[in-house]
Design a protein that fits this description.
10 strands, eight-stranded parallel β-barrel, globular, two-stranded antiparallel ribbon, alpha/beta, 14% strand, 368 residues
Amino acid sequence: MKLLLPLIFTLLTTSLKAQPPYPSPLDTILPVRGLCLGAPSTEDLDRFVKFIDEECSRLNVNLLVLRIGTSYRYQSRPELANPDGLTKEQVKKIVAAARKHGIRIVPMVNLLGHQSWHGKLGKLLTVYPEFDETPWVDLPTGKYEWPNEDGLYCKSYCPLHPGVHDVVFDLVDEITEVFEADAFHAGMDEVFYLAEDKCPRCGGRDPAELFAGEVTRIRNHLAASGKELWIWGDRLIDGKTTGIGEWEASMNNTARALHLIPKDVVINDWHYDRADPTAALFALNGFRVITCPWRKSDVGLAELDLMLKFRAGATPTTKDRFQGMMQTVWSGTSHFLDVYYGEAENKDPNGDQDACFKELFHAIGQLK
């Protein structure tokens, strides 16, 4: 028996160490309490880890969606890697900090849309111009405003190009592996150019079916290894019927894809100027949904109130589809941290994302 005691003690302590943090009472009230922001620069890595350790843990954040894009030194596709991006070892520091506090990480790489930004072409179409849905459109060099001279907001890759998925799925697989993630965020917002008449593959096709086909293909690729697909929800909302318009909803006939994609896709429903109640649209159609504010505290707090009312008033079948809230940050992470820690002032004339984050998560903390 004396010989068995040390072994039993070792097994017990090992088991205890392996357990995740105790569930928070908030998990029942609001299961998802997230923050979406860009990958930190290598110079900001330690400060970002400190932010996770000290602030995210204190504020009950349990989800980080990290916009990686090409800001990682990919081994599978080095031609698409940013040489100043995060290394594998640096990513593991972020993963360890998040795991310590029970924070889930979902890495994000924009697929389909957002392959350019105003006048700047993204890395994928720079390296693989044959994937461009609109190769006849030239982006003006160095021009940072919209609309561009050609009227294009941001380019898409052609989802029917026979070579595109071999490339982008390499990125998906590598980034989910290095982050030890069980989900991947594909973006897929603001896809304004799809099913272009001049595209030899997409011309004349139904935009809803094209969009749904791409969502389904990415979802199936992830599901083969037990991972979830997350996307933004704007292309699945009818902008004309709802009056929401072309930015936070679709005016290019992709909304019907809502009824064509798998129900296990997680929808991130972003609205920045009004608390539009579209979380109900997604939940009542069978999807899990997370509501996402940005830079207006009153909007964020109104959206939180809606989410809580949806959960309180929902049927047992639909309640847990209303997953919670995720603050979005659209500046660089360095600037966000500077303002957060009082090292810089907010200069956005249209709102304050740091203030929205603080006020939203203060309100969430009061729910306990």
